Amino acid sequence: MDFIKYQQLFVNDLEDTTFLADPANLYEPFNYIMHLGGKRLRPTALLMSTDVFGGDMNLAKSAAMAIEVFHNFTLAHDDIMDEAPLRRGQATVHMKYDVNTAILSGDLMLIDSYDRLFEYAKHPHFAEILNCFNEAARLVCHGQQLDVDFETRTAVQEQEYLTMIEWKTAVLFAAGLKIGALLANTSLDLANKIYDYGINVGLAFQVQDDILDSFGDPDKFGKKVGGDILQAKKTLLVIKTLEYISDGDLASFEASFESKDMAEDKKVSVIKDYFKNAGALAYAEDLKNNYRKQADQLIDSIVKQGYPKATIFNDLSTFLLGRES
Amino acid sequence: MDFIKYQQLFVNDLEDTTFLADPANLYEPFNYIMHLGGKRLRPTALLMSTDVFGGDMNLAKSAAMAIEVFHNFTLAHDDIMDEAPLRRGQATVHMKYDVNTAILSGDLMLIDSYDRLFEYAKHPHFAEILNCFNEAARLVCHGQQLDVDFETRTAVQEQEYLTMIEWKTAVLFAAGLKIGALLANTSLDLANKIYDYGINVGLAFQVQDDILDSFGDPDKFGKKVGGDILQAKKTLLVIKTLEYISDGDLASFEASFESKDMAEDKKVSVIKDYFKNAGALAYAEDLKNNYRKQADQLIDSIVKQGYPKATIFNDLSTFLLGRES
Fold first, then answer.
1. Is A100 near chain B, with CB under 8 Å?
2. Each residue of A147-178: pLDDT tens digit?
3. pLDDT, tens digit, for every residue of B220-250?
4. CB proximity B230 to A under 8 Å
5. Nearest Cβ partner of B23 from A80, A134, A149?
6. In this predicted structure, what is the pLDDT of residue A217?
7. What Rg, from alpha-carbon coordinates, does chain A have?
8. Closest C-alpha to A132, from A73, A46, A72, A41
9. A116-120: long-range contacts (C-beta < 8 A, 24 or more apart)?
10. Is A104's Cβ below 8 Å from some Cβ in B?
11. pLDDT, position B292
12. What is the torsional sign of CA B143, B149, B152, B158?
């Protein structure tokens, strides 16, 4: 069974689920964002993990929904903070309703996600599941805060940046995988191994996203290519360019990067040349491949521990990261 | 031991607690609001309940802190929605920092409160404690939503209003009492009885607050007397006046209530006369006394079930509601 089929299992469950209840003004925005679409990556990975480790995916559905509800809570609140007008081509919650509604509905969604997890109160790994979920929830907030902090800081170190993307995007994906494994009654050691796989794939995915944002094929990349450059985001490519660039080129790179009057196309093209020539692009590609390699090794090790079905995680890696380079 | 001594136990614990951690921009606002002061009613009631039912208050401290952290999360987010500049005479979180910080720190506080509860994973009543906490958390959001909804509605029914104040203020206080009892290993029946006591006292307190807002002694009432009238809030006094007033007086009451050019003192005095003459004030006083009576009966019943120490809840009622009228 490949990713799409697992995804379909979750999507079917989601389509059968309404989040509407009273007070309507609180639950309508909840229902709205949950049905906006998306890859449903985290809940799908959770179900895959339960299946790989011999658990019952039907019993894991509430946990999968909990993770997706939590993820959508973070989207609703992050979109307020980022003043984002659109999400998946549609109005964000605070634009369709208002900021107060997006705050309160988001709070309710966070609380709702715990209710879904509390259904596992009789599961032998219940405490472990709660701790895994809550640590991820806390780190997602930490990651969002670092992201906000970086916007106003002049210098960001590579390690800080990697910590930020780990917390902001990899941790919840990894927590889904771990919870899926725990629901299948794996050992804590195995559950932590699949968590580590999730962290590595999540980091590889985010580094790839940084690369594609500047170097992706405009026909395939969902967002506008060059968006990070035009927003002057301190991505890995910028951090490494600043580190690698020769003293002689530094001032002119910074001038271009901060320039407000260079034409957009020109600016993107100039900055991309710096990324390439300084060696930042090659560094990012290597880093992505290293994360991918570590992810692959973890799956090999899990297969060897007697879980042959774990090879489907290689398909998941490929779905997220493309063929291995 | 009276309320003040239990309160002091919690306050001592709180004073020994720092909420500071990294990222500092996330945890400083958390630490700031937690140390702003306040009556610490909910955690104190939780500790009292544990003590009354023969439990160990030291073991209940994390649950008391969880309830207080949760309560302060709601304050941080409600203050954004209400655009409140001050809380306990000091800047609200979104004014001292900014709205985004208040949103994200609030989210983190909500998540933090669960971590504190998860410390009880080995307690026999763990699942019950989680459910009690989460139901209260959900209803607090429902209550806030109703409060927001009522602002833009022309007519609010008495029962809707009472539901709103029950959810917004009574439920979390009651949940603290119930969790305190569960931590002392009471039966679920007893835990529900002390919960019901909390609901009745909470409702009596809120109805009293509505009365004092218009009829309180300016030297004793913490807020500006007449504030609800000047903000045209649809309190119980307004709802009952609209219900009881003669057809002949209705138009002139509404005109005064909605008037924007009447002098403030004059308006407060005119509206108070309507409240009195229509019988709304007497109704509210009766209602408060009835809630108080039900609260007293529940405590009597608990005492008779073999918990003589439960009489301290009568002191709690008096602390909150004054001597019985």
1. yes
2. 999 988 888 999 999 999 999 999 999 999 99
3. 777 788 999 999 999 999 999 999 999 999 9
4. no
5. A149
6. 87
7. 21
8. A46
9. A116/A62, A116/A63, A116/A65, A116/A66, A116/A69, A117/A62, A117/A63, A117/A66, A118/B127, A118/B130, A118/B131, A118/B134, A119/A62, A120/A62, A120/A63, A120/A183
10. yes
11. 98
12. negative
Domains of chain A: 1-143 (1.10.600.10), 187-309+317-321 (1.10.600.10)
ipTM score:
0.96
Residue A325 has pLDDT above 50, yes or no: no
3-state secondary structure of A87: strand
Question: Which residues of chain B neighbour A23 with C-beta distances below 8 Å?
Answer: 142, 145-146, 149
What digits encode the pLDDT tens for the residues B174-192?
Answer: 999 999 999 999 999 999 9
C-alpha dihedral (B134, B135, B138, B142), degrees to nearest 10: -160
Q: What are phi and psi of A27, to 5 degrees?
A: -90, -25
**CB–CB of A142 and B114 under 8 A?**
no
pLDDT of residue A35: 97
**φ and ψ of B21, to 5 deg:** -165, 180
Give the Cα separation of A58 and A50 in Å (integer). 10
Nearest residue on chain B to A83, judged by CA atoms?
B100
Backbone angles phi, psi at A92, to 5 degrees: -70, 165
